[in-house]
Amino acid sequence: MHRLYEQEGARLLGVALRIVRQRALAEDIVHDACVNIWTRAANFDASRGSARGWIYSVVRNLALNAVRDAGRQVDVDDTTTQALEADMSVQAYQEVEEAFELNASLGRLQHCLEGLDPARRHCVLHAYVDGCSHGEIAERLGAPLGTVKAWIRRSLASLRECMA
Amino acid sequence: MTTPHPAAPPPPPDDLQGLAGEYVLGTLPAAQRKTLEQRMATDIALQQAVAEWEARLLPLTQLAEPVTPPPALWARIDRSLQATSASPADAAAPQRTSPKAARKPLASHWWNHLGLWRGLAGSGFAMAAVLATVLVTRTAPVAAPPQFMVVLVAPQDKAPGWVVQASSPRQISLIPLGVAEVPADKALEFWTKADGWSGPVSLGLVQPGQPLQIPLDKLPPLQPNQLFELTLEPPTGSPIGKPTGPIQFIGRAVKVL
User: Fold this and answer.
1) CA-CA distance, A23 to A9, in Å (whole number)?
2) A35, A36, A112: best mutation site toward chain B, by most B Cβ within 10 Å?
3) The whole model's pTM is what?
4) Cβ contact, residue pair B77, A31, below 8 Å
5) Tens digit of each residue's pLDDT (9 = 90 or more) over B90-112
6) ipTM value for the complex
7) Residues B204/B188, Cβ–Cβ less than 8 Å
8) CA B211, B216, B217, B218 torsion-angle sign
């Protein structure tokens, strides 16, 4: 476990932090994920994916559950949150653009993402990387909620087709 | 424009992909996430779809910048793993544990046993152990979770050859990870020795590549750190009741839960 942590710990913490946006909570999640992985290693089903992928799934699921359970998406009407989100939106937009440009190692997925309209691509990236809910993405992109939902569904369908 | 969210049951086949995709993407609202997670426990098609989406989108984890954890984080995880091994009840529900909940550090020697991993480790040995566990669960599904695990490795190159799994301290399963090569005029004999025993006790002859169930009713219950080894012996086993030939595979028991 220690070796695994040494190899993946920084990236796992990075993934959790992007989603929960609080350092202490992100560390809690990496902690919980490691304990979870350790105790459930015997239940891992290899036919369902790589061990490495499994570890990331555990971290992401814990992080997503934390932000969803905390009702972060319920607070979108709150003015304070809105102000905060607006700041983050600009920042995250630049971050995603930058990170996206920097990463040519996504393989086939990169090609397929590039095939999407930029707004739809950002829906997918904001959701996966930043853990944004439909409502948060709508705010960041300044698009109606229903549109964002439809974009996401269609983006997923396109990606699935493209990756097949 | 508003798109009504699809009702959970029963979605058309294509919607399964949409739901699984949104689950992995993270955009499902909390209630739908929970519903879907419950459904996944029994719905193989859904499990499959989720696994495919996880694999498809995994490269996106590279877009999050790595953040070096503080040294204290590993210390905390280490303490929790110790606590986990000391108290399975705590470990059963790590997901439900409040992330902020205080975690009690328990002094035990769990990590000393993990030192086994380190001691034996070439790089990736821990991963090999995880994968070995995978093989174990796939080849020998058991109702009870294993309480002890032993990965038996070749002494020279540390290549894992067998796994010992014990779902109770009274019975063990020996599971091959491959077919060990044994000279025609020799046999593999299986031995164990716990701390404090005067010498190894024979658990019988083992056929290369064949799994084996062994009751331990004549022996004391399994202990952490108990030694297991396979040695090369004459075809009828060691004539003196102690290992006489070279060790082919060796490992020590680690308490899992």
Assistant:
1) 14
2) A35
3) 0.53
4) yes
5) 444 444 344 444 333 333 333 33
6) 0.81
7) no
8) positive
